[in-house]
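Dear H.,

Thanks for agreeing to be a second pair of eyes. The structure we're designing against is below in token form, covering all 161 positions.
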């Protein structure tokens, strides 16, 4: 973990919470029941249900621990409550254009919510760091593994309050 705050939207936090509840209240008890049943069947060294169940239980516990840490470190920020809507901050949806005038629409979201294929970029990604605080008409340079790209911010939007 880093010292950076784990910004997340209310919907993103609800998703983490729902996954935690599903694992803790549904999946884990089911696996524990299966492991308990398999343990009563005798030799555990060749018991696939027991061995697989124990492995699956460790995976669930590891995921629960990770989710717990992420939720504990989370700082829920509602983009609809953003006071300064003229600048790119957490939750902003930006339309940007590169040097070849190709436009992209990006939404700055928490790292746990990032989905580049759907235009949601994590708050700590290189492109999000470069765009933070930008206003319409600003030019921002982004250092990517393939080289430096300059983007112009065409519009900034936030969800309705």
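And this is the sequence the design step returned. I haven't edited it by hand at all.
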């Amino acid at each position: 973990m880093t010292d950076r705050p784990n910004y997340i939207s209310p919907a993103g936090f609800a998703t983490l919470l729902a996954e935690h509840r599903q694992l803790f209240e549904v999946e884990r008890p089911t696996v524990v029941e299966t492991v308990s049943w398999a343990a009563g069947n005798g030799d555990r060294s060749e018991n696939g249900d027991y061995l697989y169940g124990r492995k699956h239980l460790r995976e669930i516990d590891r995921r629960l621990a990770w989710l717990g840490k992420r939720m504990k470190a989370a700082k829920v920020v509602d983009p609809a409550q953003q006071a300064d809507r003229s600048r790119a901050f957490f939750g902003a949806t930006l339309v940007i254009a590169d040097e070849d005038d190709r436009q992209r629409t990006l939404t700055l979201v928490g790292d746990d919510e990032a989905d580049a294929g759907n235009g949601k970029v994590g708050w700590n990604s290189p492109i999000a760091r470069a765009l933070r605080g930008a206003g319409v008409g600003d030019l921002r340079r982004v250092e990517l593994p393939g080289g430096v790209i300059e983007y112009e911010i065409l519009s900034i939007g936030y969800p309705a309050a």
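Two observations from my side: The domain at 79-157 is CATH 3.10.50.30 (Chitinase A; domain 3). The two ends are 32 Å apart (CA to CA).

Warmly,
E.
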